[in-house]
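Inverse folding, one chain.
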């Protein structure tokens, strides 16, 4: 069966409903968490939420609509150019007067009225290019010359740029998503185990050369070791989560976001949500992420070609891995990472990139079938 001859089916209505639900709930949670930042800094809601609403919700909605209507196989033609452009944009953060540094990290481009984080688009470019390459070599991927070596080269190039910023957390998400795609393309387990071992060694080297990474692991293993230093954020997050009880304090009623919780609209936003909506609310949002991901993976299994399968696996893995690392860090079952919570944390660029990715997934769902064709 030639995928080009397939007539598009209606998009996955259930997945679309989940996406709309996540965007709406995410903006409500963000709005509540913004009250804490406004109280501390005196900022107005408009100044805090401008990029989140204009670039995230509105811009992301437009990107979602456009991506969901572009035939996904067309991305193969421009995958290299999109990947190259996203790499160059990410490297541009090192250009003086254009790149912006905050808290010791150089990750943003200052465009005057708005700042963007190009690595969010690099994640998308990486997945599209890797899916294109893997779909072309999947029949000989067991040979290291066609599989392991090129995969390491592509991922390593991204890693050099990301670690230079430094943005270790985003690189980990990219590498994990890439490995999921590599495995789904038919890579032998010996290659996967070698990559996992290499990843552990690299992480150990990074931890010993960058003290803040070591502090995260130390705090994860010994959360009471430095309550006023590296362990402060985790302790305040656990207090917020525990204070929510079963049903929560109520929307907008979080106490921790005003005085104690660092980054209430950033990587700590889940703790604000848990305090306001309690155990029931946290279970609901976790289930929403799980159902969204499972629906995406179902689309991957029903794709008409290996490219569509790998594309969806990479995009959905990236979203769910980031979500659960963020949530896990806030409840102490994973080291602190600084990763934003998809749909919720502050960052118009991140929300736009997430919705663009999901638009591609929904386009793949238009051409799904129960018969797999390579």
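Residues assigned per position:
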């Amino acid at each position: 069966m030639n995928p080009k001859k397939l007539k598009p089916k209606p998009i996955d209505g259930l997945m679309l409903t989940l996406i709309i639900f996540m965007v709406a709930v995410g903006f409500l949670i963000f709005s509540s968490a913004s009250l804490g930042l406004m109280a501390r800094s005196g900022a107005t809601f408009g100044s805090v939420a401008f990029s989140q609403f204009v670039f995230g919700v509105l811009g992301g909605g437009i990107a979602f609509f456009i991506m969901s209507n572009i035939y996904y196989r067309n991305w193969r033609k421009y995958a290299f150019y999109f990947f190259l452009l996203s790499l160059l944009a990410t490297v541009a953060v090192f250009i003086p007067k254009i790149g912006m540094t905050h808290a010791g990290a150089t990750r943003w481009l200052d465009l005057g009225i708005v700042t963007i984080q190009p690595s969010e688009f690099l994640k998308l470019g990486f997945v599209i290019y890797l899916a294109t390459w893997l779909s072309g070599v999947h029949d000989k991927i067991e040979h290291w010359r066609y599989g392991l070596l090129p995969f390491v080269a592509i991922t390593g190039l991204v890693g050099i740029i990301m670690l230079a910023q430094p943005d270790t957390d985003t690189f980990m998400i990219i590498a994990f998503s890439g490995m999921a795609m590599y495995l789904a393309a038919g890579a032998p387990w010996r290659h996967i185990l070698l990559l996992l071992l290499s990843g552990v060694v690299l992480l150990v080297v990074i931890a010993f050369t960058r003290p803040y990474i070591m502090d995260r692991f130390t705090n994860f293993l010994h959360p009471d070791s430095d309550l006023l230093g590296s362990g402060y954020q985790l302790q305040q997050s656990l207090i917020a989560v525990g204070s929510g009880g079963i049903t929560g304090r109520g929307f907008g009623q979080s106490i921790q976001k005003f005085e104690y919780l660092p980054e209430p609209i950033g990587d700590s936003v889940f703790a604000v949500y848990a305090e306001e909506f309690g155990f029931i609310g946290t279970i609901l949002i976790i289930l929403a992420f799980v159902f969204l991901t499972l629906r995406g993976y179902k689309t991957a299994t029903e794709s008409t070609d290996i490219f569509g399968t790998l594309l969806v696996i990479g995009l959905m893995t990236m979203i769910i891995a980031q979500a659960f690392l963020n949530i896990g860090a806030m409840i102490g079952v994973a080291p602190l990472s600084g990763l934003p919570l998809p749909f919720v944390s502050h960052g118009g660029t991140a929300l736009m990139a997430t919705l663009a990715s999901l638009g591609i997934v929904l386009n793949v769902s238009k051409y799904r079938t129960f018969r797999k064709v390579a």
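The CA atoms of residues 246 and 279 lie 5 Å apart. The radius of gyration is 21 Å.
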